[in-house]
Amino acid sequence: MLDDFIHESRVAYFSMEIALRNEIPTYAGGLGVLAGDTMRSAADLALPLVAVSLVSRAGYFRQEIDAQGRQVEHPVSWDPADFARPLDAKIAVPIEGRAVWIGAWLYVLEGHMGGRQPVLLLDTDLDENRREDREITHYLYGGDETYRLKQEIVLGVGGVRLLQALGFKIRQYHMNEGHAALLGLQLLRRHARTPEFVRPGESLYDVPRVRELCSFTTHTPVEAGHDRFAYELVQRVLGNAVDVEAMKRLTNAAEAQRSRLAIDEGFVEFATIRQLAGEDSLNMTRLALNLSEYVNGVAKRHAEVSKKMFPGYQVHAVTNGVHPFTWTAESFRKLYDRYLPSWCHEPELLTRADCCIPDAAVWEAHVQAKQVLIEKVRTLTGIALHPKIPILGFARRMTAYKRPDLLFSDLERLKVIARNRSFQVVLAGKAHPRDEGGKRLIEQLHAQARALEGIVPVVYLPDYDMDIAKVLVAGVDIWLNTPLRPFEASGTSGMKAAFNGVPSLSVLDGWWVEGCIEGVTGWAIGNAAGADDGDARALYDKLEQVVLPLYYGYSGDPGGWVKVMKGAISKNASYFNSHRMMRRYATEAYIR
Ligand SMILES: *Cc1c(COP(=O)(O)O)cnc(C)c1O
Fold first, then answer.
1. 566-575 exposure pattern, b = at least 16 Cβ within 10 A, e = fewer
2. Is the beta carbon of 373 within 6 A of some atom in ligand 1?
3. Is the CB of 129 within 6 Å of ligand 1?
4. pTM
């Protein structure tokens, strides 16, 4: 099985989380879904990648909402043997002075067009390891910062070594966010100069060589969001630094050979780590920036923000995209297959949707997708939504900057709008178990939903995951997004909606700065530079005066709504997809 993948050189794509399929809980949100879509597009486009992630046997968590509207977290264990096969190779990394053994599972991602891509899920739950080390790869985003650092050593250092042990030929390393940045240190060791040839004043480490091998995609638009570790902690956990001066004194070839082995087993000296990762603490983003020739943000706006945050670095912009087949509902797949065949391989063809697909056919596909959502809501909550009344959808990680409560910030105003032209709301999302603010928001949303009873039906679907996301982004009429600027690096759920002809109503941040053509692909809330405190009013005004009148046909433009649906498909789905994203990574980052 592995033999199918090791004969040609590949790009190693490192990600802490990856959404492979709904039954495998190795993802928490947008970052993992992006990693999954990356591999799905690679499969369709026959780009040779190999993904490296952690097996996360205990998953993220399953969310239940109790009678008070509070999030209750349940573990979700999965057995990798159900979906993947264990590989023979094992390697060890030193952690806290012990050898921690790492094995891997091979998951073969099979694309809907027959393409296949290998995914390695690293696993420390091996008999060789003591108990606490066996748990390093159990909990996605669990534990304290020591636990997180150990996970990042396993991912970055362990991942690079295991790829080599398995016989993979790697032409490029792509870090999806800074979690994997320690891979750069492992490469520095691997490509260290032979000590006897190091000239005075020259480093043992060949940073330019490693930079040629690495690409880095940053996802975090604020300083506080970046992973950092105190050097005391790093020293304690990584330990075992290489004494570079002693290396340089080595003269004969045998000793040099041994020293290279030592370099490969030990760690890069701390003076070098400090130079690359920051004086005060080990900043994973800075480390990744310094060891990658190609760096990008995930939307144009985000690349600008990143340049300001890290002056002196060239940051390209590769706007995210979503996987066409995965995020398109059955009814729309059929529609596109009929009118724009091979759209799945070349989603650019969807630019023609506005002229080539009859309005009635688009509407009928939407009615079907909406019915699927209404059924799902009924099964999960017992609530019957009305098929003729527009549904606003909002679902994503529940955390303060996403402002899920913005729509409910003035309940009286909202009631006035709804009495005039009714609408319904469907919400979903998990809060990280340690995000108290996020959990309070979930509780608050439930209270607000109760306050609106009888006037605006508001449903909260528990345990948001890929399957619920698929039904939601296709079945609602309007996709709402109200982040605090500039915290939404990209956002991708609105792109998923576009594939299903669902227009976005969103604050101008992340991808929407590029995706919004007012009244054509959806609508903006406020303006790009807008003050955040005016957003609630801007949202109510737009909903009341533009969006709902157009939906109900009171805008003097009876076909207007379907026109916007087609605008979302032809202008946005055709562009904001992961095929375009991967073609750009291939031509700009992987081949250079
Ligand atoms: C797409 C997706 C996300 C990301 O949503 P954003 O609006 O980009 O934050 C999160 N969770 C799941 C399950 C998704 O499918």
1. bbbbbbbbbb
2. no
3. no
4. 0.95
